[in-house]
Design goal:
By secondary structure, this protein is of the alpha/beta class. The chain contains seven helices and seven strands. Helix 4 packs parallel to helix 7.
Length: 224
Amino acid sequence: MHNQDVVSDFYENCYERIFNSTGLVSWSYRLTHRQMEKAISVSPGASILEVGAGTGELLCYVDPAFDRYVMVDLFGPPANPSWEGDPRITWVTGDISSDLQFEGCFDRIISMCVFHHLAEPAAAMQNIRRWLKPGGVFTLFLPSDPGIFNRLNRRVFVMPKARRLGFRDYDLMNAREHRNHYWSLRTELLEQFAGDRIQRQYKPFGIPSGNLSTHSFWQITKSN
């Protein structure tokens, strides 16, 4: 029988060492952050919300011209964060599927690999759209899970690193955590942001297919 705490075990003991340390998997993870942010400039005075902020690892890739940067996550902030002392940056512990008080506040909202984990992704999308100002932009990283290339990447690179670190239940953890698949999320995004401007980039080959990509970047501009 597998330990019911396999998910918390992974995030407490393995996540940082797999994705935010050394080696090919960590390098690829950082590359994904750089690719998403490299062509995006921030207007002076911009207000930004990052949902599912994790340990705040995306922040160093974001154009620093913002006036306000709010991070939201189910868990509290990491100890001694790199942004400590920066008055522009705040942390909110909360659930983006619930009614957080951010009505029409943000010029930009960012999400990195969050929606696969949510029990109510449609509610979270509705909130995000409501929290954007008219003309605001929602930037989304969406893994093509369980597409063929995504599973291959996990099998060849991520799972072996997890096993080397002593974590042998990656498939089970992923089954419990990635409860929503790419195709359902794609359909829901197109529904919830219908009428807004949606741009997508599929990586690594530019082929707009869940099976022929590992992930996609979405830029959704809210209509006025």
